[in-house]
């Protein structure tokens, strides 16, 4: 053996001096893949590897984001001390100084302008315990009616659609394990291959078992590639398409009469409405050929089992609720729900996109999916919280409407936890203007995000590697994410930060918790008897069973994998069919000579949301380091746009600069830009401020733009 080789082996042996492992869950999407981070120390260097851990939802799988998530959590730019803005610069201060300043400012604002002058903006990337506590902090700590969260921009149309139709909202009505056995699957406006990659094997198995897959998307994506039929719809016309499917199923007498009679209301009205619609009109409006529409409808109706999934493509529209309900009409009239291998799923977005929409962060909601306007619900929660029901505020307004109220000067102070609305809100220029008008602004984050830059105080939070708590995943399965590493520097857990602020404000007696589990035990009580009932779930059970589907009302209840087997959640136990107009009530922007193209927005595999986290990961940033505009080569030619050049995209609200990317996979009338970049590449500078009247979801998925080379 040569000297060199010997030296190599000697070094290799000494290489790993110690090894530590941390059990955790990926901080990103709703799959909540369980994983272990292995930390090896090599001389003075640390090497990290993430390994998937077996669990009932993801079976040990991980995607590239999970494998590299530690790169942002361990990044040198994590904030590790409270920061106070002094003369325009952030300077590190002690927790005492930051908290005293918060007390002084909040007291001043509320004394002068009333309780509702303070607002809270939360997140679906925090734990159930933290989401629950943030709702309690707003109502009891600040006594303000103004609280909402980033999930408004995400799951609100699906939630409202399901609540109106079924009387309850849990993303998936069936466990994922049923997908491989379903005979026909519709994927409407969902790009699971890039957005929930570890879900894909369920659908691939279904295909192997002979299922017929139908995708509805204006673009060909990694998801539409596995479909047998792709309806390349004109953006924003899904509600009309759903009506078309319903019409074909009724006309062809493929409805499930027994199911409609015994399990639903409203069929006569639906039939009458649909009878007046014309399929040729719908084909023209949606630009989906009638033959393809017919194929999709007949396949779905005729197979013995079927599942239908929606995501933000159809939901992030000013008629998102209507589109969801339109597709639920398809599910209901064919009786494809409440039985094995048949059901509906709104594919949840953020890590805790499910749980964080159940426990009181929404403007009109109390824990357990209770209503803040219902007297019984108010009385129940007031008792759990030890306050007088009359002291509980009434409902507030949605996320974007809070920004408008800040801009109008009605709201003066803001606590923001785990969100980046300067990038993620529609009409982002107005949002930035509003944030700059705040008298007092506290941001709680891991980093100095684009939004945190506007803050007066930034408080350092703990990341997924450090913070223990429960997350409810895409299946409605509650999971326990263990804390593994200590917080860096003086960072604290989000729940600790809420408790300390409450205590500073003299409300400490309502926030006496010493662990996340303490908070969970109160959440269990608060959710007892509600729709999202967690009262039978304990940390011990979660450790032993690896995850439990809600509702779980008793300690010996196994959890509920499949919903609606015998009844829906409305008082009469029936589902509500609904009459959906082809045209949205709030008009969508139409293309004009001035703005001749549709813009639609979405995601790529390597980045997450506004990119604050994933752009810090060298491995992920290397895959996509800048934003782009997907454009059809023919359209590009018509606008003198070469491939891979910088282009300007303009809407009536603003303009951005991104790189062109020719693609035969997109419609000729549409361009696509991802959402993961900020500043001059923030696509939300272009998006308008119209909201779905039913759920206040912004119309993120369509606006009219013009493009030109630079
Ligand atoms: N890699 C990655 N994964 C993520 C995220 C991420 O940022 N990056 N975010 C997570 C979150 S919070 C969410 S909410 C989910 C989102 O998950 P998805 O909703 O699946 O993702 P999007 O890319 O926003 O949109 C899905 C598809 O809708 C299509 N679409 C656009 N307009 C229309 C339309 O008018 N009609 C129809 N039928 N389709 C349309 C787009 O072309 C796109 O392929 O992903 C989660 N997972
Ligand atoms: N045009 C367009 N706009 C969109 C969408 C779209 O499809 N098109 N999608 C919308 C959707 S679905 C969503 S979900 C929103 C999301 O929008 P945002 O919530 O604004 O996006 P994130 O990038 O997740 O911001 C999270 C912030 O919290 C910080 N953070 C991460 N973990 C923690 C933690 O544990 N504690 C604390 N305190 N902070 C933490 C991160 O550093 C980051 O700054 O964007 C919406 N905006
Ligand atoms: S991003 Fe989603 S699919 Fe990928 S590892 Fe994380 S939780 Fe799993
Ligand atoms: Mo989302």
Automatic annotation (TrEMBL):
Keywords: 4Fe-4S, Iron, Iron-sulfur, Metal-binding. CDD domains: MopB_CT_Fdh-Nap-like, MopB_Nitrate-R-NapA-like. InterPro entries: Asp_de-COase-like_dom_sf, MoPterin_dinucl-bd_dom, Mopterin_OxRdtase, Mopterin_OxRdtase_4Fe-4S_dom, Mopterin_OxRdtase_prok_CS, MopterinOxRdtase_cofactor_BS, Prok_molybdopt-oxidoreductase. Residues 19-77 form the 4Fe-4S Mo/W bis-MGD-type domain. The gene is nasC. This is Assimilatory nitrate reductase large subunit C. It comes from Bacillus mojavensis. The keyword Cell cycle does not apply. Its cofactor is Mo-bis(molybdopterin guanine dinucleotide). Coiled coil: none annotated. It holds the Pfam family Molybdop_Fe4S4. NCBIfam families: AssmNtatRedNasC (NF047855). SUPFAM superfamilies: ADC-like, Formate dehydrogenase/DMSO reductase, domains 1-3. The keyword Nucleotidyltransferase does not apply.
């Amino acid at each position: 053996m040569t000297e060199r080789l010997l030296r190599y082996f000697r070094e290799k042996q000494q290489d790993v001096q110690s090894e530590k492992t941390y059990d955790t869950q990926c901080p990103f999407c709703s799959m909540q893949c369980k994983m272990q981070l292995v930390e090896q120390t090599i001389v003075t260097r640390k090497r990290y590897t993430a390994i998937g851990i077996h669990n009932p939802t993801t079976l040990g799988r991980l995607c590239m984001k999970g494998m590299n998530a530690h790169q942002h959590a361990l990044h040198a730019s994590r904030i590790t001390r409270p920061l106070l803005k002094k003369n325009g610069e952030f300077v590190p201060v002690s927790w005492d100084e930051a908290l005293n300043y918060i007390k002084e400012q909040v007291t001043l604002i509320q004394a002068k302008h009333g309780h509702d002058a303070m607002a809270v903006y939360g997140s679906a990337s925090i734990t159930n315990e933290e989401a629950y506590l943030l709702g309690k902090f707003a109502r009891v700590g600040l006594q303000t009616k103004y609280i909402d969260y980033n999930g408004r921009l995400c799951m609100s149309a699906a939630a409202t659609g399901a609540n109106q139709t079924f009387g309850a909202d849990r993303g998936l009505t069936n466990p994922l394990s049923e997908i491989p056995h379903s005979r026909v699957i519709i994927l409407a406006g969902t790009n699971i291959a890039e957005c929930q990659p570890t879900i894909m094997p369920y659908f691939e198995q279904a295909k192997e078992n002979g299922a017929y897959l139908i995708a509805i998307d204006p673009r060909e994506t990694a998801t539409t590639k596995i479909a047998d039929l792709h309806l390349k719809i004109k953006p924003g016309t899904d509600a009309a398409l759903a009506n078309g499917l319903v019409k074909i199923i009724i006309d062809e007498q493929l409805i499930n009469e027994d199911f409609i009679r015994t399990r639903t209301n409203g069929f006569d009205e639906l039939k009458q409405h649909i009878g007046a619609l014309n399929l040729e009109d719908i084909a023209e409006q949606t630009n989906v050929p009638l033959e393809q529409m017919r194929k999709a409808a007949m396949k779905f109706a005729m197979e013995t089992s079927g599942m239908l999934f929606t995501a933000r493509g159809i939901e992030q529209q000013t008629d998102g609720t209507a589109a969801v309900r339109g597709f639920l009409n398809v599910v209901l009239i064919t009786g494809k729900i409440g039985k094995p291998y048949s059901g509906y799923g709104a594919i949840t977005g953020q890590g805790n996109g499910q749980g964080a929409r159940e426990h009181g962060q929404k403007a009109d909601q109390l824990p357990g999916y209770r209503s803040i306007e219902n007297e019984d619900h108010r009385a129940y929660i007031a008792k759990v919280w030890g306050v007088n029901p009359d002291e509980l505020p009434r409902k507030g307004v949605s996320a974007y409407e809070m920004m408008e109220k800040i801009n109008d000067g009605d709201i003066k102070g803001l606590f923001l936890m785990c969100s980046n609305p300067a990038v993620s809100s529609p009409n982002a220029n107005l949002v930035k203007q509003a944030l700059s008008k705040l008298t007092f602004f506290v941001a709680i984050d891991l980093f100095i995000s684009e939004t945190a830059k506007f803050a007066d105080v930034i408080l350092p939070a703990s990341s997924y590697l450090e913070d223990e708590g429960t997350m409810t995943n895409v299946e409605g399965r509650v999971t326990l994410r263990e804390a593994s590493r200590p917080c860096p520097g003086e960072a604290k857990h989000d729940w600790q930060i809420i408790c300390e602020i409450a205590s500073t404000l003299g409300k400490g007696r309502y926030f006496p918790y010493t662990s996340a589990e303490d908070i969970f035990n109160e959440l269990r009580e608060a959710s007892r008897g509600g729709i999202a009932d967690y009262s039978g779930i304990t940390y011990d059970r979660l450790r032993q069973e690896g995850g439990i589907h809600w509702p779980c009302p008793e300690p010996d209840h196994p959890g509920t994998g499949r919903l609606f087997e015998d009844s829906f959640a409305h008082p009469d136990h029936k589902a509500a069919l609904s009459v959906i107009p082809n045209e949205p009530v709030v008009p969508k922007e139409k293309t004009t000579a001035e703005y001749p193209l549709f813009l639609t927005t979405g995601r790529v595999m390597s980045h997450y949301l506004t990119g604050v986290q994933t752009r810090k990961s060298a491995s992920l940033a290397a895959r996509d380091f800048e934003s782009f505009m997907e454009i059809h080569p023919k359209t590009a030619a018509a606008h003198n746009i070469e491939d891979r050049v910088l282009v300007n995209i303009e809407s009536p609200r603003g303009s951005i600069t991104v790189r062109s990317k020719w693609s035969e996979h997109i419609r000729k009338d549409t361009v696509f830009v991802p959402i993961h970049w900020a500043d001059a590449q923030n696509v939300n500078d272009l998006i308008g401020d119209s909201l779905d009247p039913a759920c206040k979801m912004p119309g993120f998925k369509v606006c009219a733009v013009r493009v030109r080379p630079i």
